[in-house]
Amino acid sequence: MDKNNYKAYYNKALIKEQLNDVNGAIIDYSKAIEFEPKHISSYLNRGNLKMNAEKYSEAIKDFNKAITLNPTLLQAIQNRGICKATIGDKTALDDFNRLITLDPSGEAYLNRALFYINNNYKQDYCSDLRKAVSLGFDHAKEFLKQYCK
């Protein structure tokens, strides 16, 4: 197999994704991975498509592989955490904590706060919401008003 074939499949997948051909894009990302099993973007993009299709367990597998290949890949860590949280996997908190350690963004703090809220954790989600707002993530303001009166 010519390893460069992965580029053709990857580019086809990107085009199909733009055309909202989700299944076709997933197939082509899979082909790209078949030719180049270390192509991180193929795992990440395929995982994102699966996540958006609510195939959370399948998406987690793709994010796991992307993270194995690049342990500091922020989008994969965040999206894996979101998928885990959605299916009730409490290890999502590990991903949100790791994300905050690597990149303490407002979105990361909001994701952890929402995890705390949805799982009735006693940790101070209000401090995470305040931190998210202070970092300029305005979307957290509505949650701050709702949960931290």
TrEMBL record:
TPR repeat intervals: 6-39, 40-73
Gene3D superfamilies associated with the record: Tetratricopeptide repeat domain
Pfam families, alphabetized: TPR_1, TPR_8
Keyword vocabulary terms for this entry: Repeat, TPR repeat
Lineage top rank: taxon: Bacteria
InterPro entries tied to this protein: TPR-like_helical_dom_sf, TPR_rpt, Ycf3
PROSITE patterns xref list: TPR, TPR_REGION
The name this protein goes by in its record: Tetratricopeptide repeat protein
Organism per entry: Flavobacterium humi
